[in-house]
Write a structure and sequence with these properties.
Blueprint: H1 2-5, H2 11-20, H3 34-44, H4 63-78, H5 83-100, H6 105-123, H7 127-144, H8 148-153, H9 161-177
Length: about 180
């Protein structure tokens, strides 16, 4: 705690160290913003550890799949997704990947246009601003653990209106939590 108080460790580094050492929560320093405390109290607390997200692959765990699993959990945790919302996002991504697996490039283009129209109908004039906030969050996730941008750009995953809406919603919480 002293290292955090003196600025020798960031709150994120301290949290990771505390997690690795299994330090009880009551012995940790609480560096959350007031907004973060409010979000947590309202039921939007992120999973305590990346391993708390449920990711079912349905395949034998190959080294590549294990690497993806670790990356996905890191992305969800880094963006402070509540466990249930993170699990829902993973499920939605899986469904989109299955749905678009055999799409041709032209079909993917049409799919993206159709999904974007749904987003425009839902968010109206605020869509551009909301997508910018989501993109900033995704960029922050990418800096911590590369690969999220490639995933979202593949097979229409990031074009899907449900996936995009979940990311938009989480971006609002993310930026409120971190005071930006």
């Amino acid at each position: 705690r002293d290292f955090v108080a003196k600025g020798k460790l960031s709150p994120e580094q301290a949290a990771k160290s505390f997690d690795e050492l299994n330090v009880p929560m009551d012995q940790r320093v609480d560096h959350r913003t007031e907004a973060a405390k409010e979000l947590d109290a309202a039921g939007f607390a992120p999973a305590a550890k990346p391993k708390e997200y449920s990711i079912h692959h349905g395949h034998e765990m190959t080294p590549e799949l294990k690497q993806f699993d670790t990356a996905a959990r890191t992305w969800l945790h880094g963006a402070a997704f509540p466990r249930e919302l993170g699990n829902s996002l993973v499920t939605a991504i899986g469904r989109v990947a299955q749905q678009t697996a055999r799409f041709t490039p032209d079909q993917l283009t049409t799919y993206g246009q159709t999904e974007y129209a749904k987003l425009q109908k839902t968010y109206g004039e605020t869509l551009g601003e909301k997508l910018q906030a989501a993109n900033r969050m995704i960029h922050a996730m990418e800096e911590r653990q590369p690969g999220i941008k490639a995933l979202l750009q593949s097979r229409g995953i990031g074009d899907n209106a449900i996936v995009a809406s979940m990311l938009i919603g989480q971006a609002e919480l993310y930026w409120k939590r971190w005071g930006k």
